[in-house]
Amino acid sequence: MTPSAYLRELASAITRAEDLTDEEAQAVLYELALRIYALLLARLPATSFERQLRWPELRQELLPLLLAANDTLARALFSRLIPTEVAILTSTLNYYGFPNRVIPPRPLTEILERTEVLTTPLARLFSRDATGISPFARQLLRLLERSVLAATMRDLPTEEVAAVVIGTRTRAGRTIAVPRKGTVANAWRERTRAITAAALWGLVTPSQERISATAAAEGIRTSSWQWVAVLDPRTCPVCRPLDGTTAPSPAEFPRGAPPLHPLCRCIVIPTLTQ
């Protein structure tokens, strides 16, 4: 089996068709990195000068892979948004003893426009522009292009240029690709995890504000909001002391409403009084 065929087989084996989680987001980009790794090994010329001449052509071959990853991640993430909002509404209502109360989720179009990642609406982040490329795909391409061209300018061997995209590890006599720290694959993985976390947790405050508004309409007053952190060894030193603190509104916490950082697991819940 050739290295390219092996990498493609491995990529296929680790890709799962299930709801988007951090692990699956990593797997989608991991497969993409493996395919680019194989393409670089097979297609890059030997010398730095020849590589620079060939890069525009290779870039056009890579772009469809980036756009396919963009569409796969967008579909999976969007499919999670309404179920996540329903879960937030249900769990918070159950917490306050209203298990039979149902608040319909917002339309997906509204969620996509109002849920932002670094001030960019989620809909715009994944939507293709007039050139057919989305901001998310452009981010991936810039990360890849900058790293590969820098390695090419140093006239590194082709295998070392490929190692910039994704690392390798020898296990039981076989070379296995891994998204090692410092590689493009790792940067893609961290970028996608941050977007996933920001998108899902970006639903928390709007969803719970709707609970507060519904409660007010029924004569139940929201006296304050309480910070709830997941307390375990992974809890960061910024979020841990905020657990249990209260504020008049989510925006009035000392550091603002959660999420405070990528993969933040904190939420705020309304304190309701009759």
Structural write-up:
The protein has 274 residues and is mostly helical. The protein has 9 helices and 7 strands. The strands form 3 sheets. Strands 6-5-7 form a 3-stranded antiparallel β-sheet, with helices on one face. Strands 1-2 form a two-stranded antiparallel sheet. A two-stranded antiparallel ribbon has the order 3-4. A hairpin with a 2-residue loop joins β3 and β4. α1 runs antiparallel to α2, α2 packs antiparallel against α8 and α3 packs antiparallel against α6. About 3% of the residues have low confidence.
Order of helices and strands: HHHHEEHHHEEHHEEE
The secondary structure category is mainly alpha
The total of beta strands comes to 7
Report the total helices.
Answer: 9
How far apart are the first and last residues' alpha carbons, in Å? 70 Å
Low-confidence stretches: 14-20
Q: Rg from C-alpha positions?
A: 23 Å
Can you give the helix content as a percent range? 55-70%
Number of domain units: 2
Topology of helices and strands:
Layout: H1 3-14, H2 22-43, H3 48-95, H4 108-114, E1 116-117, E2 120-121, H5 122-126, H6 135-153, H7 158-165, E3 167-171, E4 174-178, H8 184-201, H9 204-217, E5 221-228, E6 246-247, E7 267-273
Antiparallel strand pairs: 1-2, 3-4, 5-6, 5-7
Summed up:
The chain has nine helices and seven strands. With 274 residues, it is mainly α.
Properties at a glance:
274 residues; mainly alpha; 2 domains; three-stranded antiparallel beta sheet; two-stranded antiparallel sheet; 9 helices; 7 strands; 56% helix; elongated
